[in-house]
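TL;DR need structure tokens for one chain.
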Amino acid sequence: MNKIFKFLQILLICGVVFILISLSAIIYFGQTAKPQKSDCIIVLGCKVYGTVPSPFLAWRLDRAAKLYSEGYGNYIIVSGGRGSGEDISEAEAMKRYLISKGVNKVNVIEEDKSMTTMENLQNSKKIMKERDLKTAVVVSNKYHLKRASLIAKYCDIKASYSGVFVTEYKTHEITGYLREVPAIIKFYLQLICFKLF
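>> reply
TL;DR here they are.
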């Protein structure tokens, strides 16, 4: 019985250490990510209220518009399908928002089929390939960037990253960091299963 208890203690300690290391890596990546001049900018989708981007998505779009104006990419790929409670696709809402901010509509490319980060980047990669775009700046919330970087690597996207932190929603942002730990574990498990089977 003592051996089982000690084993469970060790298992628990290892689990806590793993979570802390993962969380540190997520925070560090988000804080240190720097964009590089690229062929395009990919904005990962987020909630839309009817037809209006949520604050999280609006911040991502403002960052993308800034990067675009500073010459970090000639095109902006807006990626996101239509989810529950959304009157239009996230991609369409994003395109409308960017045009309202002065981005040339010709340079905004919609990808409106994705429902997950994996699909966001897989479908964006297809667009990049079709248009001979070799490099991208991926824009999302800082907590999301580490996992996005792992998926982008899996999708063979040569990318740099730029993250936002929505100061008005600090609690949501902190929750986002915590949610990313199991999300990254899930990604690795899916990757292992894919390789095995």
